[in-house]
Design a protein that fits this description.
binds flavin-adenine dinucleotide; FAD/NAD(P)-binding domain; four-stranded parallel sheet; alpha/beta; 11 helices; single chain; globular; five-stranded parallel sheet
């Protein structure tokens, strides 16, 4: 009898797992022994790191959007629908269309989403570059800005922990190029007592800020925003005025995970840090931003995890024991402005150690933006 593998989520992690299994189990799929189905909400797949470049007018969302069907291997059945409930007790998923899909094995890669209602005043006042619409709206403001104060606020957890740092460096570049840097006050804030949760990254960023005249305030936790006065009030008692406010609010797990009671208080699924199985469910794997693992929510994390999930699932489908273990590996390029970038590479046991930024690493980052689709297809 055919075994049903269902992958919920058609973003980075879900697509990489689907293509990896489809490629390796091509013959079993052809013989009808395995059925591979991916459920995802939208027909389009958007490369989210492009939003950073969209917001400073270096890219368009449409340049980084592909039809999901076009990046899936032929052995994967694509279902474009919204999952409304996952029920591990009956191994089934209810869909908004009214259909129910059963599975023998489930892979969840449903992502993480900024909660724009997490702070009073934020939704109506703040700009963001974490959604396609947000990045386009922010771009229009940033390119027409003629001077004043731009403040970046950050709450945790959020995906791509280095993206706010990258944005502030890119804004420094943008206004230098426009010749109005002396008229723009750039202020970066962070909720704990340093510039980034990863201490080596914070230590790398501090002198860069000083060299570029980027202001910062740490222990900065937004309590509310006054949309009329354009002032941020913090839990620590600061009152900071702004002309443009760019906020990265705390993220939550996907609605379906929260509605299914599968997540913790933030909607992130308790996940075994090595096997990537959902705690308590032997036939459910979780990867990417949907896990509760204490590591960066990043596409590269999903990529490394996808190999572990796919290989273990293939072993189980072939009657073998799953033996691959995720070691917490993450790799992120970090745009540093002035045409340079650095990178961080770390794992559960090895801390990051950013090296001085170079032009070469900047070009690697831009090249990867173009090669992402090959990576999602499993070619790279
Ligand atoms: C501005 C920005 C810059 C970034 N830069 C980088 C970077 O430089 N490097 C890096 O490694 N990462 C970066 N990231 C992070 C990276 O994009 C994510 O970490 C990555 O996409 C996570 O993959 P995922 O599969 O977990 O989730 P996603 O790729 O977000 O996919 C989630 C999928 O689940 C689907 N889904 C959710 N709910 C349902 C439902 N109910 N029914 C059906 N489908 C559903 C969604 O439609 C989506 O297809 C960046 C992110 C942003 C926003």
């Amino acid at each position: 009898m055919s075994k049903n593998v269902v992958i919920l989520g058609g973003g980075t992690g879900g697509t990489m797992v689907a293509n990896h299994i489809a490629r390796t189990m091509r013959d079993e799929i052809k013989r009808g022994e395995i059925t591979l189905t991916q459920i995802t909400e939208t027909e389009n797949h958007i490369y989210q790191p492009s939003f950073l470049f969209v917001s400073i007018n270096h890219a368009r969302v449409e340049d980084y959007t592909r039809k999901q069907k076009s990046i899936l291997s032929s052995g994967v059945n694509l279902v474009v629908d919204t999952a409304t409930k996952v029920d591990p007790s009956s191994n089934s998923i209810a869909l908004a269309s009214g259909k129910t899909i059963s599975y023998d094995f489930l892979v969840i890669s449903t992502g993480a989403y900024p909660d724009f209602n997490s702070v009073p005043g934020l939704a109506e006042t703040a700009d963001n570059f974490y959604t396609p619409e947000g990045a386009e709206k922010l771009r229009d403001k940033l390119i027409n800005f003629e001077g004043g104060k731009i403040v970046i606020t950050i709450d945790v957890p959020h995906k791509c922990p280095v993206a706010p740092l990258e944005l502030i460096f890119m804004l420094d570049d943008l206004y230098r190029e426009k010749g109005i840097r002396d008229k723009v006050d750039l202020m970066y804030t962070y909720p704990i007592g340093r510039l980034h949760s990863l201490e080596p990254v914070a230590n790398w960023a501090a002198p860069e800020f000083e060299a570029r005249g980027i202001n910062s305030e740490v222990f900065f936790n937004v309590e509310s925003i006054d949309p009329k006065k354009k002032v941020i009030n913090t839990l620590e008692g600061s009152e900071v005025p702004f002309d443009i406010l760019v906020s990265i609010p705390a993220h939550k797990g996907a609605q379906v995970i929260r509605d299914s009671g599968l997540g913790d208080e933030g909607g992130f699924i308790p996940t075994n840090r090595h096997s990537l199985k959902a705690e308590g469910y032997n036939n459910v794997y979780v990867l990417g931003d949907a896990t509760n693992l204490p590591i960066s929510k990043a596409g590269s994390t999903a990529h490394y995890e996808a190999d572990v999930v796919a290989e273990n699932l293939i072993a189980e489908l072939r009657g073998l024991s799953p033996s691959h273990m995720y070691d917490g590996k993450v790799f992120c390029f970090v745009e540093a402005g002035l045409g340079k970038a650095t990178y961080v590479s770390f794992s559960y046991s090895q801390p990051p150690a950013p090296t001085p930024a170079t032009e070469m690493i900047h070009w690697f980052k831009l090249a990867f933006n173009e090669m992402y689709w090959l990576s999602a297809k499993g070619v790279l």
